[in-house]
From TrEMBL:
Subcellular compartments: Cytoplasm
A matching Pfam family: NDK
Record-annotated active site: 116
An annotated Gene Ontology molecular function: nucleoside diphosphate kinase activity
Keyword annotations of the record: ATP-binding, Cytoplasm, Kinase, Magnesium, Metal-binding, Nucleotide metabolism, Nucleotide-binding, Phosphoprotein, Transferase
CDD domains: NDPk_I (cd04413)
Full protein name: Nucleoside diphosphate kinase
E.C. number(s) listed in UniProt: 2.7.4.6
Taxonomic source organism: Streptomyces spirodelae
Cofactor: Mg(2+)
InterPro entries: NDK-like_dom, NDK-like_dom_sf, Nucleoside_diP_kinase, Nucleoside_diP_kinase_AS
Annotated residues for binding of ATP: 9, 58, 86, 92, 103, 113
Gene expressing this chain: ndk
Family: Belongs to the NDK family.
Function statement: Major role in the synthesis of nucleoside triphosphates other than ATP. The ATP gamma phosphate is transferred to the NDP beta phosphate via a ping-pong mechanism, using a phosphorylated active-site intermediate.
Length: 136
């Protein structure tokens, strides 16, 4: 099975949607939470995580938003969980996200789209090392 790094972003925590989103993940047969913590992300961590977006116009507002309050940082484990959580989350833009997906049901604007999930096996390995360096 696979492991993936999931962030429930500060908007999900502020809006009280953590239980709802974790519930959707847990209800998937065979998926489970392997690590989880409520954590306010610091600049250095966010710079590593979002390195690919440095210099884009949305980068600074994204960094500010992601540091604006606690996130839930998780490793989720299970069959095809990398692809599966991306599907459960829906596309980046909440307007384009179908009802039934987290972003489709609860999303408001592109930046505050509630959830992050690694987009490939390589990203999952890289991101798990950033957020859970001691976890293997
Ligand atoms: P993550 O799961 O958070 O990585 O989202 P994603 O993979 O669907 O999107 P991507 O990695 O391209 O962008 C990372 C995050 O930057 C998104 O989740 C948004 O919060 C934000 N973002 C991406 N593109 C835009 C954009 O065009 N405008 C704004 N305002 N924010 C963006
Ligand atoms: Mg991404």
């Amino acid at each position: 099975s696979q492991r993936t790094l999931v962030l429930l972003k500060p908007d999900a925590v502020r809006r009280g949607l953590v239980g709802e989103i974790i519930g959707r993940i847990e209800r998937k047969a065979g998926w489970s939470v392997a690590a989880m913590e409520l954590r306010t992300l610091d600049r250095a961590t966010l710079e590593q995580h979002y390195a690919e977006h440095e210099g884009r116009p949305f980068y600074e507002p994204l960094m500010e938003f992601m540091a604006s309050g606690p996130s839930v940082v998780m490793v989720v484990e299970g069959e095809r969980v990398i692809e599966g959580i991306r599907a459960l989350a829906g596309p980046t833009d909440p307007i384009a996200a179908a009802p039934g997906s987290v972003r489709g049901d609860f999303g408001t604007i592109v930046r505050e789209n509630l959830i992050h999930a690694s987009d490939s096996e390589e990203s999952a390995e890289r991101e798990m090392k950033i957020f859970f360096p001691a976890f293997s």
